[in-house]
Write a structure and sequence with these properties.
Belongs to the free Met sulfoxide reductase family. One of its GO terms (cellular component) is cytosol. InterPro entries: FRMsr_CS, GAF, GAF-like_dom_sf, Phosphatase_reg/MetRdx. This is GAF domain-containing protein. The chain is 33% helix and 26% strand. The chain is of the alpha+beta class. It has a single domain, classed as Beta-Lactamase (2-Layer Sandwich). Strands 3-2-1-6-5-4 form a six-stranded antiparallel beta sheet, sandwiched between helices. Helix 1 (4-14) runs parallel beside helix 4. The chain is globular. The site of methionine sulfoxide has 14 residues, from helix 3 and strand 6.
């Protein structure tokens, strides 16, 4: 089982600047290499109205842009709630960037009432993400939100 409290401490030590681009890049790489059985880990950012724009990530080149009314990422952005999808083929509107992906976890990044973007994790294994993974990954996002100036991310009339 992944030791998320150790990962949270390691991530906090890694994020030694408040710069958003540096910290999103470090976080994507850290999660991709420390959480087993992922084929993609990265960020989509709310930089245009009702639209997610691809940010720092690890894995195959990915779909861009993603409107809020599409995909697991759009659902997380619109609802402000984590989406834990055991079988992406059963999720209406799932966007298949990589046919190998079978399960997905998407955590919205909220700073106050501002939706900054989402962290998206994909796995080639069905049902890869448990409730414990969700809690652990949400805790890593809280470290990122606390340590990083996410409201500095440039955007175009976000709503
Ligand atoms: N599957 C996502 C799209 C992003 S990729 O997985 C990297 C979705 O349905 O929103």
């Amino acid at each position: 089982m992944t030791d998320y409290s150790m990962l949270a401490r390691q991530l906090e030590a890694l994020l030694d600047t408040r710069d958003w681009l540096t910290n999103l890049s470090q976080t994507a790489a850290f999660i991709f290499h420390n959480v087993p059985e992922l084929n993609w880990a990265g960020f989509y950012l709310h930089r245009q109205p009702q639209t997610l724009i691809l940010g720092p990530f690890q894995g195959q080149p990915a779909c861009n842009p993603i409107p809020f009314d599409q995909g697991v990422c759009g659902t997380a952005a619109l609802s402000g709630e984590t989406q834990r999808v055991e079988d992406v083929h059963a999720f209406p509107g799932h966007i298949a960037c990589d046919a190998a992906s079978r399960s997905e976890l998407v955590v919205p990044l909220l700073v106050g009432d501002r939706m900054i973007g989402v962290l998206d994790l994909d796995s080639p294994l069905p049902g890869r993400f448990t409730a414990d993974d969700q809690t652990g990954i949400e805790a890593l996002c809280e470290v990122l939100i606390r340590t990083t100036s996410l409201t500095d991310i440039p955007g175009d009339n976000r709503d």
